[in-house]
Write a structure and sequence with these properties.
This protein is α+β, with helices and mostly antiparallel strands and 368 residues long. The chain folds into 2 domains: 129 residues, Copper Amine Oxidase, Chain A, domain 1; 223 residues, Zn-dependent exopeptidases (Aminopeptidase). It has 12 helices and 17 strands. The structure holds zinc ion. Zinc ion binds next to loops.
Length: 368
């Protein structure tokens, strides 16, 4: 009931914002010394948490705010700071860093309500938990994820070749090549074992990796499909990406505790925002690897595209998913089944990664 009520308020707000031409904004200025008292009078208790209307916070701290009806993102800023809020979520972007407010931003009686912890961003008293800080632009540690494994064979190609075996072998070789270049490489698996998708990105997060690379091989209904593809996480995707994404996400059927929540569109937007800086890096990395495969192996590098891959979604760092070739294509399956070819693939991918690393480190971070 409560949810429905809130939903109604949300709809009301959105409709009224639509009437205002899909955007709304405000700006306030106050110099009153009694603002603290005034603000405390505005506190509302929702689900046993203290909330305050955003408009009151804006008055208190001399902030302007702006609601974008298309992205459903609220931007709050002054000359020094810029915060992006996502109604329904407690994660916010503050000066391009992710903070956890511990309580979600919500719409209550037609007003945007922020939890008390939001105020700490402006008072500098015990700031809310910062999720990720990026200060050094270097790539020292990479987590390589050999796709599938154990009870999940992945794609099965000509002559019964299994994607899990191809992915593992290329990943092991890639680790060797990158280690030679001084990169610290962690594998999510180095044997034929099963990991749920979530665990793979968790390993990368725990290791505080600078990059996450998931290695796969593709399959298609048409045996003519061939070539290399790279994907990065995005909410924008086309029908082709969707087809690959459905196949790669299908591992979920092998997972016993598949109860973890997958995002609705709102959360997808949120993650998209959080990952926007990572996305630039992911695209650049995908391009660098793809260019090298084209140059060294004359591979048909088909696509570099965005898609919603679950394995990439949980990673707090730039991440790419590589489809090394089609197991359903006779020639490509034959080559992928050849150890010498897999070694050449691993060497070319490593060269692409190293080239990207050098470019990234000299650029001081693309997103800055
Ligand atoms: Zn796969």
């Amino acid at each position: 009931m409560l949810v429905k009520k809130q939903y109604n308020y949300c709809i009301l707000l959105i409709i009224s914002l639509f009437l205002c031409g899909l955007t709304a904004s405000g700006c306030s200025r106050t110099g009153s010394v009694s603002v603290d008292r005034r603000m405390s009078r505005s506190f509302v208790r929702l689900d046993r948490k203290q909330y305050v209307p955003l408009i009151v916070v804006c008055k208190q701290y001399d902030l302007s705010w702006h609601w974008d009806g298309f992205s459903k993102i609220i931007t709050v800023k002054n000359l020094k700071s810029n915060a992006k809020l996502f109604p329904g979520s407690g994660l916010i972007l503050f000066n391009n860093e992710v903070f956890d407010l511990k309580s979600r931003v919500r719409i209550h009686r037609g007003q945007i309500m922020v939890p008390q912890s939001f105020l700490r961003l402006f008072t500098k008293k015990e700031p809310p938990l910062k999720l990720r800080r990026k200060s050094v632009f270097s790539i020292r540690k990479i987590v390589i994820d050999a796709g599938h494994g154990g009870k999940d064979p992945g794609a099965i190609g000509k002559k019964g070749i299994q994607e899990k075996d191809i992915a593992l072998d290329i990943s092991l070789r890639l680790k060797k090549e990158l280690t030679k270049q001084g990169i610290d490489v962690i594998l999510t698996r180095d044997t034929d074992i099963f990991h749920p998708l979530k665990k793979r990105s968790e390993i990368a997060n725990k290791e505080k990796a600078d990059f996450f690379i998931s290695v796969h091989a593709n399959a298609a209904h048409t045996s003519s499909a061939n070539g290399f593809e790279a994907f990065y996480l995005s909410t924008d995707y086309d029908d082709f990406s969707k087809a690959v994404q459905i196949r790669e996400n299908a591992v979920i059927k092998f997972e016993e505790n598949a109860g973890y929540e997958y995002s609705d569109d709102l959360n997808a937007t949120l993650w998209d925002m959080i990952l926007s800086e990572n996305r630039i890096e992911s695209i650049e990395m995908a391009n660098s690897i793809s260019d090298e495969l084209k140059r060294a192996l004359k591979l048909n590098t088909r696509y570099i595209r965005g898609a919603r891959f679950r394995v990439l979604k949980g990673a707090n760092m730039p991440a790419v998913l590589l489809e090394m070739g089609y197991l359903t294509n006779k020639n490509e399956a034959m080559r992928l089944n050849n150890a010498y070819y897999r070694q050449m693939l691993a060497e070319a991918v490593a060269t692409g990664i190293i080239r990207y690393k050098k470019l990234f480190e000299s650029s001081d971070g693309f997103s800055k």
